[in-house]
Amino acid sequence: MNIRAIAARALGPVIGRKESLNTALPRALQQCQESDQALLQQICYGTMRFLPRLSCLANQLLKKPFKPQDQDLYALVLLGFYQLLEMRVPAHAAISETVEAASQLNKEWAKGLLNALLRNLQREQGSLFEQLSEQPEFHYNHPQWMIAKLQHNWPDHWQAVLEQNSQQPPMTLRVNQQKTSRDNYLQQLRDAGIAASATPYSTTAIQLDSPVDVNLLPGFAYGFASVQDEAAQLSAGLMDLQPGQRVLDACAAPGGKLCHILEHQPDLSHVTAIELEPNRADRIEENLSRLNLSAEVIIADAATRTWWDGAEYDRILVDAPCSAAGVIRRNPDIKHLRQNEDIKPLAELQLAILDNCWQMLKPGGRLVYATCSVFPQENERVIERFLKTQTDACHLPIEANWGIERPYGRQLFPQPQGHDGFYYAVLLKDQN
Asked: Which Gene3D superfamilies match (predicted)?
């Protein structure tokens, strides 16, 4: 089948806010040959990465919007625009292949419309860009609510965050220090012809100059390394893990931080991982298996105690469900799928999980709160609200050379060819 048709069928439900790209893309990849999968991924991710800007162009050129049952055609228009503006595909090939895809979608009637829209963009690109230059959604390539929220929350940082959100993220590895050292693994990468360098903040992180298939990484199948952003790798160090401790990872999927905890301190007495969704819990088991690690994985709601046996934990990681506004580079559909009204209920859920897990922490224990968000409403304000109600909780300032210090915790923003956006706070429980 035509790759553009497969991409349009995958993107239609995402653009219609019925599915995420993480759900739609794996099905699409099964429909094309392995040699075409990289192109399919590039088209899908690229179209979602530039969706706000592409939508502005489509709205300018379309006389009327597509009907709901024709979201696949709308996706075809947008991915055609993406090819013309951002890819190195020759314009004639991009246009002909995209127009032909309408036939495979059983919408032969739309071929003329598609051809006209693509050629109009090609012909009028300069004037269209000039007409739309004053629109924030077009200029910043983000929905208006997100632009306004970032501008309000981070008057000194918002433009840099928006700029980074439209870039492709680097590929970063976490070296399993139970198997090898970072220096040794860097040498193994060099020997394999893979250019890479150590990152500045995590002692286990290596950033590749260019992404590669994980199967090409030395010893990947044997657990020598895992793919994980540098910011996410900071959690294990903040936990202050000691031999013999009981540890809880309260929102564990897909298991990256959990596995890092087990690699970082192999002599823990017991580790529990909680995950609400069974299919995501499967990812935890897969990661544990590849790395030859073990933990008790429980499918349960971290905001409840029905699963808990009453034994308290020395350390708890709450990597709370969030808007994921700090990892838009990796999940570009977040810009489209998230809405402003999502943030308040997410903050309430985060506080509920935090309150619940706090009851499971031993006196003298430590809880690390983390999100991959850049919105204070999900981060420092949650911690502030929590501390007002928990008299036995103490905020421990994080002394570090990464991120920026906040009244509570530290905030990281996505960096050029560096780590993602992330937030951490450390809480201690009174001994008495």
From this structure: Helix hairpin bin, NusB-like, Sun protein, domain 3, Vaccinia Virus protein VP39
